[in-house]
Design brief:
elongated; 168 residues; 77% helix; mainly alpha
């Protein structure tokens, strides 16, 4: 009786594992293959170029104020109140440039999320659809966490997910 119980304890997990189906997908490859990814990248690039142009304009204005101050900084004929005002303008300009850089970075990150989130939602919905259709228990994303080993019988669903998304 003891041998039967031991055998059942060893065989039961093996039987459960035989029913488990695991596959992989490269979500980043799917993302890169979609046409809407290129559209999103172009929108982000355009926004980045606009922000860069504005930054360069602000930087030029700042440099002009600094150069103008340098001309009067050591001039004994220029009243100290004018020098002080120019210093305050330079400090304010520096603060504005730094604030603009911070806001620009946040704006680009927000826009990136707004553009990419719907794409990733579509990808994960397609992965679920392919997984359900194939009866998979787990589908691992190899673009985020590489699989240590995938044998000859391993199943990569990346192409199937891309085809499903392209057909929609």
């Amino acid at each position: 009786m003891r041998k039967i119980i031991t055998l059942a304890l060893v065989v039961a997990p093996l039987a459960l594992m035989a029913q488990m189906r695991i596959a992989t997908v490269d979500v980043q490859a799917v993302f890169n293959a979609l046409p809407e990814t290129k559209v999103a990248a172009e929108k982000l690039d355009q926004a980045s170029k606009q922000l860069k142009a504005e930054y360069e304009l602000m930087q030029a204005e700042f440099n002009n104020k600094y150069e103008a101050y340098q001309l009067i900084a050591n001039d004994d004929k220029t009243p100290q109140t004018i020098k002080d005002r120019r210093v305050r303008e330079i400090q304010e300009g520096d603060r504005e440039v730094n604030e603009f850089l911070t806001q620009s970075k946040e704006s680009l990150e927000k826009q990136k999320m707004e553009l990419e989130t719907p794409i990733y939602n579509r990808i994960y919905a397609a992965i679920k659809q392919v997984g359900d259709a194939g009866g998979y228990t787990y589908i691992l994303d190899v673009s985020r966490t590489p699989v240590a080993y995938a044998g000859a019988g391993s199943v990569n669903l990346t192409d199937a997910v891309i085809k499903l998304l392209e057909s929609k």
